[in-house]
Amino acid sequence: MRKFVLAALVFAFCASANAQRKTEIVEPVNVTSDDGGLVLKRKVAIGRFSNETQYAKGIFYDKENDPMGKQALDILSAKLAASGKFLLLERSDLASLLEECQRNGGGFSAIGADYLIIGSITEFGRKNTGKNKAFSSEKTQTVEAAVSVRLVDVATGVIIYSDEGKGYAELTTKTTMGLGGQASYDATLSDKAISEAIGQLVENIINKCTDSPWKTYFLSYDDDAVLIAGGKSQGLQEGMTFDVKTQGKKVKNPQTGIMITLPGKVVGTATIVSCGGDTPETEYSFVEVSTSEKIDAENMSKYIIEQKK
Fold it and tell me: Confidence class of residue 273 from pLDDT cuts 50, 70 and 90?
């Protein structure tokens, strides 16, 4: 009889000493390029991330400082930054940046984004379930979340990608003969569910942002030097070659009312010689240009430098 009791106690400690977690782990997005890992970074801003559910909205709820919305924004920013594909631009705390810059007596010049991400938490729920048996009990905390995002092309205002991801996180604790783990309210399950939902969308966001070729413009064009905008923070390196194209004509599509830019003409190539500048907004690159026709140095805005397809 003593052996039976001892065996039961050992079983209880081994089976239920630790809480059992059931969550899907979202691995970091690993996106490779065709040029050995070099990435031409796009400029992306997250416009807002709001909580559209009724969760945690009491009488003193402040929509501008919703913790779940800010949490989702931070998670998305971290995942996009980890991909190495983007220059992430601050928008949610832009007012604070401007205020701090004015205190320091400096000027602040915001960079324009290529793409704007708008998101919201559309579903969020938490539930507790349990099972009681003769010699054991089981308690499970479950959190489910749904996140919706829209990716907008800033140049046209057109939504180029819209989707919803759902995340799930679970924590189970068991006790046998009164022994085992005891789990109270676990707030980290909310983080895991939201993170999983956002993780399902990140790769599609990356693919949509990189569908169109990277491009930039001439800064200066004279006999001493030819400079283009952009530098190492955007992925430029010495020896890289880009097409020099004329700006395509813009026409209005009568069916949709949207302005369409027609393809421009390739007139030459530009090869990176060296890069300079201290910050993304002040970076530049020296280039050597080879063209089939003379560049109009008085009207540089008619040209773009574009990633070769």
Answer: very high
| Chain centroid offset of residue 35 CA | 22
Report the half-sphere exposure of 176 (CA within 13 A, side-chain side). Answer: 14
- Residue 65's identity, in one-letter code, is N
Cα→Cα distances 65→72, 124, 150, 216, Å? 12, 18, 21, 37
Angle between helices 67-83 and 188-209 (to 10 degrees): 50
Which amino acid, 159? I
Q: What pLDDT shows up at residue 66?
A: 76
Pick the range with the lowest mean pLDDT from 20-29, 47-56, 216-225, 287-296.
Answer: 20-29
The whole-chain average pLDDT of the chain stands at 77
- The phi-psi region of residue 36 (left if phi > 0; otherwise alpha if psi is between -120 and 50; otherwise beta) is left
pTM of the model: 0.67
Mean pLDDT is lowest, of 95-104, 112-121, 216-225, for 95-104
Specify the amino acid at residue 105.
G
Mean pLDDT value across residues 17-28:
38
Cβ atoms of 24 and 78 closer than 8 Å: no
Question: What structural domains does the chain harbor?
Answer: 17-209 (3.40.50), 215-306 (2.40.10)
Q: pLDDT band at residue 185, thresholds of 50, 70 and 90?
A: low
Retrieve residue 201's tokens: 């969308």
